[in-house]
Design brief:
Keywords: Methyltransferase, Transferase. By secondary structure, the chain is an alpha/beta fold. It contains 5 helices and 7 strands. The chain has helices spanning 28-40, 57-63, 75-84, 123-128, 146-160; strands at 18-22, 45-49, 68-72, 88-92, 99-100, 110-114, 131-134. It has a 7-stranded parallel β-sheet with strand order 3-2-1-6-4-7-5, with helices on both faces. α1 (28-40) packs parallel to α2 (57-63) and α1 runs parallel beside α5 (146-160). It is globular and about 50 Å long.
């Protein structure tokens, strides 16, 4: 059997209706890792809140034609705006009422909300969500890195919506 590396990406039959929304992050590295995974998943829009963030130059070069990175001051107005646009606000956060990602069905039109690496999402931000999902952890520390968890959630969304 002969294998050829780097075959072309799969074609989406319709644009993804998934937006990645980040609470103020501490690290441009995490944002760059999120952007790289989002690009692989066919996501075209990332909204980063807080201080202006930049992508790693290599990631920025690769994503320049496919991903729009929007920088906004604060998360709450963004969430309210996305709700008006018809997005389901799904936070990636461990809460007392969060759903296990293994049993969660993503709505096609989803805004995936990512918390800060250390502090997660605030109580006020959590109150604006439609629901929260979490990724089970079987060891320590008690949660995955923000970028790693986002990659897992993006993959699960794409598994559920492979055509776009």
């Amino acid at each position: 059997m002969e294998h050829t590396r780097h075959r072309p990406p799969r074609e989406l039959t319709q644009p993804r209706e998934l937006v990645v929304v980040c609470a103020p992050l501490r690290s441009n590295v995490n944002l760059s890792r999120i952007a790289r995974a989002a690009g692989c998943c066919g996501v075209t829009r990332i909204i980063a809140t807080g201080r202006p963030m930049k992508l790693d130059p290599e990631v920025a070069r690769d994503a320049a034609d496919t991903i729009t990175l929007e920088n906004r001051r604060s998360l709450e107005p963004v969430l309210k705006e996305l709700r008006k646009e018809g997005y389901r606000l799904v936070g990636l956060e461990q809460t007392t009422n969060s759903h296990d990602i293994h049993h969660y069905n993503f709505p096609r039109r989803t805004a995936l909300v990512i918390g800060n690496e250390r502090t997660g999402l605030t109580d006020e931000e959590l109150a604006l969500l439609d629901e929260a999902i979490e990724i089970p952890v079987w060891g320590l520390p008690h949660s995955y890195n923000a970028a790693t968890a986002t990659c897992m959630a993006l993959y699960e969304y794409c598994r559920q919506w492979p055509e776009g």
